Amino acid sequence: MSKTRTSEPGHDAHASSSETSRRDEPAYKEADAAAPGHPPVEETNREWVSLLTDHPSLFWQTDLDLKIERVAGGALRILGIGEDALLGQQVPEVFQSAPDDPDPEAVHARARQGEKVFFALIFAGYHFRATARPVRNRQGEIIGVAGGAFDITDQHTAAKAEAEAYEEIDRRVSERTAGLQLTNAQLNSELEQRYRAEERIHKLQTELAHMSRISTMGEMATTLAHELNQPLTAIMNYAKGCVRRIESGDLPQHTLLEAMNHIERQAERASSIIRKLRQFVRKREPVRAPHRIDGLVKEMVALCQPDLRRHGIVLFEEVPADLPELMVDSTQIQQIILNLIRNSMEALQSLPREDRRIRISAGMRGGDLTLAVEDNGPGITPAVREQIYDPFCSTKEDGMGLGMAIARTIAESHGGSLEIGEMTRGASVRLVLPVEKRNTAK
User: Virtual CA dihedral for 208, 210, 216, 217, nearest 10 degrees?
Assistant: First the structure.
């Protein structure tokens, strides 16, 4: 409470209290007469008023009808309210109830019944913590209600400000939480969309790689037909020989057994070629498993041998058998190897047959395994190097231009890469695959 009052002439608080005391003198004398030996009521009243007008609180007394008979306290002086303004008024006209507290009239009614009541009230716009109790005469009869209160406006204002601050914080937190929830929902939606997009891309890449393998087999159809024709021709010749021996009656058992063994081996050779081709071109989801790079290379070199012989190309294979295993999809890695070998074979067509060379080597570089395919052809021009991984970029008239793009995608999906090496003559392409990071991508 910070309000101060400037006393007006003729309205001194002590004077007002004295006048009030004189007006009520007959009643107090009557009460005094009923209590022999008690100090005169008028004297007690003056002392009571003198003491309480300097106290920074508020005190009052009512009769049984809850009409204010006496009032004092420093709060009146601070608020600039004269005692006369309150004397004779009913309690409900002076005091208002505080939130969540009983109204002052009900409190005084309880005190009038003999109960001491603690409550809060509002007086002249200020908040007070108050007590009301019964007033008794010498005979113990209740003749009114006395009340006292002290100002808690500052505490109330601080508590209200604190509550408002907490409400503001709660509002801001709620807004921020709602914003974060919305952002989180949007992020989850975007992540879901990205996941689905990546799944579609992965599926398309798998489809494209499959089509590329089929295309490669189409380009090798003549060679593969020739490769299959050899064991089939051998089987046919051995079978005809057996028929002639049987027809002539010349049936030495060891000769027939030897011919039948040759037929079996050639049939197994043809079956092996068909089985490898079927495994290479069949459509399936990539499956990672431990594989040794030397075994993957040997199978692709064997597949290319007919073309290598037909074009007079000598291939040097320098892949150690003791290199660490790789956790890879064998078909995809073999697709890269086959693509690099065939690119080198194409590049060597401009050289004389006796000069055509391809070298495949492998080794470790830190935690990575590297496989290099090199040739002594005309090399890769700067213009081709810049767009070598671009889709539909090809130096061949009938090429699709997808081989290197697919090869790099496969390498990166395994956590590796494709590198174009520097050579004074010829070309070098290096496949780099991590040995330790085995599950970096699908």
Answer: -150
